[in-house]
TrEMBL record, chains A, B:
Domain of life of the organism encoding this protein: Eukaryota
Positions spanned in the full protein: 8 to 238 of 284
Keyword terms of this UniProt record: DNA-binding, Homeobox, Nucleus
DNA-binding region: 81-145
Gene Ontology CC: one annotated term: nucleus
UniProt protein name: WUSCHEL-related homeobox
Bias (Polar residues) ranges: 146-155
GO molecular function: DNA binding; DNA-binding transcription factor activity
Length: 231, 231
DNA sequence: TCTTTATGAATGAAAG
DNA sequence: CTTTCATTCATAAAGA
């Protein structure tokens, strides 16, 4: 593998404009990654279901499950390529920070363009980056306040809950059975932990697609091994 | 592995300060396609099997859901308690994307109901969710276009240059937020020559899956769409 | 290296 | 519909 990589790499470098074949864009690659991850997860889910169903009957499901786990499961949700992300240069950061501090909480599309133009003199950047940055900046500073200023300890929780529930003004013309449990309090740590949560399934099928839990085996990437199988 | 990739990336970036470096041979691409197709087929089969098993063993979806949920909790731990918003199942997502791609941009209340009904077979969902999904999907795809269409006006810089160059490599619409760093994926021919059929299931009962032509039904031909989304 | 943290990006929901 | 918010995911950077 390594060797091949190196070779290809060299070829890549030397024949930059030449014939080797196929170029995938980041989007395509990312899409591919997602797609594979989705399938892997799907298979995982299904296998799990089979396992559950078959436990009392025969070995089929179990075996399938095991095999699957060995070959595919560890790869679920992993990345094929690392998605690269923008990182502001110190200078950009400084400028952004300054603008942010100026208070005008609403960067608005116009502003964004300006800012982006300005910042692009100091490094690669796009409007989306700026937009996201402000978005995140605002959200996080807000949360910080929230977390730091919960001096209103005890009864605030209840009040907050009621308040937020009242906020739910949307006329529910269409509502199924949903987890629209806007039990959303002001997510302080305290409230988050005492809350008797509703444990029942909402997405019975694939809840843990979002698993980020430190799986010790997460070494593997869904990459194609030399024999054409996934590992 | 990962590291190797990183190295490649760095090398690419520094040595020839150019971008787009994802290179695949035709065979590799083909292999990839096959592999994904196999995944799709497998999933289809598994779903079918699951349905059969479910009905046969007289298990309701709910029960399955509960059991599954339980096993999930034990394995994945804390997760489930904190979820408060709907997360589409991969399957649901696929379906949604497909519908969206079909162009009928106006999901009208009628449609929504239908779709919801359909999707509810694959997981907990409500009409509101579907409604929101389409809302967001449309808005965001629009924004993407908006971000991409405006031909680079500000060429004041190296980065801008790079950017436009970058865009040239993208035959299709691109995702708004991706604009910068690229990483390298190179697949060797060696890895591309094998049979995807070896993928995972060796169980006799499932063996027949492997003999299927991946493209048997169009649903099993997962290729990325032009806008980098799944369908 | 491996783990943890900070933060860019994605996205469901809701407001405007 | 468009914009914004809240939450979560993924990863670059920092720490051990």
């Amino acid at each position: 593998w390594q060797k091949q990589l190196q070779n290809n790499e060299k070829a890549d470098r030397t024949n930059n404009n030449m014939m080797f074949v196929k170029v995938m864009t980041d989007e395509q690659l990312e899409t591919l990654r997602k797609q594979i991850a989705v399938y892997a997860t799907l298979c995982d889910q299904l296998v799990e279901m089979h396992r559950t169903l078959s436990t009392h009957h025969d070995l089929t499901g179990v075996r399938v499950g095991n095999i699957y786990c060995d070959s595919l499961m560890t790869s679920a949700g992993q990345k094929i390529t690392s998605r690269q992300r923008w990182t502001p240069t110190p200078l950009q950061l400084q400028i952004l920070e300054r603008i942010f501090d100026q208070g005008n909480g609403t960067p608005s599309k116009e502003k964004i363009k300006e800012i982006t133009a300005e910042l692009s003199h100091h490094g690669q950047i796009s409007e989306t980056n700026v937009y996201n940055w402000f978005q995140n900046r605002r959200a996080r500073s807000k949360r910080k306040l929230q977390n730091n200023v919960p001096p209103t300890t005890i009864e605030s929780e209840v009040d907050a809950e009621v308040d937020s529930k009242d906020k739910k003004t949307r006329p529910e013309e269409l509502i199924g059975s949903q987890q629209q449990q806007h039990s959303t309090i002001i997510m302080t740590n305290a409230s988050a932990t005492n809350r008797p949560e509703k444990l029942c399934f909402q997405n019975p099928e694939l809840q843990y697609l979002n698993n980020q839990h430190p799986n010790k085996n997460n070494k593997s990437d869904p990459i194609f091994t030399s024999d054409g199988t996934l590992r």
